[in-house]
Specification:
Length: 132
């Protein structure tokens, strides 16, 4: 599975590159934001995609936590689906309790990765300011 990432033009990519060394640029620097990809939309070695669905959710959370203004989209998902991944309260949905649990697990994965990305980015900024 593939994740497309849009970053503000002046974004610092170091923490994300360290976490996802296979990230690659789309190559269009004429706009105010840059487009990158993590993963591969084609089957990888041994019939496995580079990112599983779970890993793609984690990637989105990590990147959006690490870089303010970043936006991610997982392959095959649109705005509604990405909004459901980021949603935290599912109590008002007219779906089964099992479906609410599944949505909540996915959301928890996203937010855990988001907090981790934010923490690592903040630590990198502190080290940079100290000259470490």
């Amino acid at each position: 599975m593939e994740v497309q990432i849009w970053l503000p033009k002046k974004a610092k990519l170091g923490v994300v590159e360290k976490e996802y060394p296979d990230i690659y640029a789309d190559g269009d620097e004429k706009h105010d934001d840059l487009s990158y990809f993590v993963g591969n939309s084609n089957d990888g070695p041994n019939g496995r995609d580079f990112l599983t669905y779970q890993e793609a959710v984690e990637c989105c959370g990590f990147v959006e936590g690490a870089i303010p203004g970043a936006e991610c989209v997982m392959e095959g998902n649109g705005g509604w689906a990405m909004g459901m991944i980021k949603r935290e309260d599912f109590s008002g949905l007219a779906v089964s309790p099992q479906q609410k649990s599944a949505y909540k697990r996915r959301s928890n994965t996203y937010w855990k990765a988001f907090r981790r990305g934010k923490r690592l980015s903040a630590n990198a900024d502190i080290r940079h300011r100290r000259g470490d």
